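JOB MANIFEST
job_type = single_chain_structure
chain_count = 1
residues = 292
[input]
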Amino acid sequence: MDEINNQENERLRKIRERRLEKEAQKKPEPIKLQSISASNRETETFIEKNRKRKSTTAARWVSGIFSVIFGSMVACYAFLPQFRFDDIQITGMDKINKAEIIYFTGAKGEPVFTVDPLQIRSTLLQHYQDIYDAEVTIDFPAKMEITLTERVPVVEWDFGGSRFWIDQDGMVLNESRSQESTIHVYADSYPGSPNQADREIPLYFSRDTLKTIITMGSFVPENQPLIYTYKNGFGWDTDDGWRVFFGKTDSDIEEKLRMQESLTRYFHENEIQPIFVSLEFKDAPYYRFVEN
């Protein structure tokens, strides 16, 4: 009886094992998480490089297209006559040689993109002393206009037979085409000269000196020139026939003019005919006269 039971249990055990095997065969294998390996990194690197290569290629195509367009524009500017300067308009100074001005610009017949307006301005100011300023404008496709401003002299300095002019900034001009009235100065030297024998014309006059000249010039008797000497400074010939000097600056000029009026009355009252009066030092004026 026991043996029969054992055989039956063994048979049931085997049946269960075969059933478990069949069921195990039907179940899917568990999912295994794939770890990052060297082969995965190589794949990602390849994909990234490929993406960058495509992006670079697209950028090169775009750049190439723009280069072609820009090159075509440059070619038009360089070779087509419509983009070269043919006629240059110059205004502002009627008496200046316009053909010479155009020559010094160096722009005649040149492509518009090769011309620098600031360089043209600098060149003209260097070559022409009497040009105060030059405004250079360029309009599309190839039109240039130059507006010149002339230096305006305010003083004409007669220096021992030779003449030069001084503009409103103190710049010395070797010649002047201006028709503006100026203060005429007859001189044997100039302010700041190292000695009376120095004949070298200065490049400019200081603003203080120019101010003195203009101030003195406003008091000069009508139809009389302003006089300057190395020893006595500025002065003029009076209507009474004597020469008065006020020094090398315009300091205390109004007080010195009142002193001149007082001396004039004194000379008339005492029948004195001076030939020279110095008011350079207001506290120590002196004069020379002709003795009868």
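[summary]
The longest strand covers residues 131-139.
The chain has a mean pLDDT of 81.
exit_status = 0
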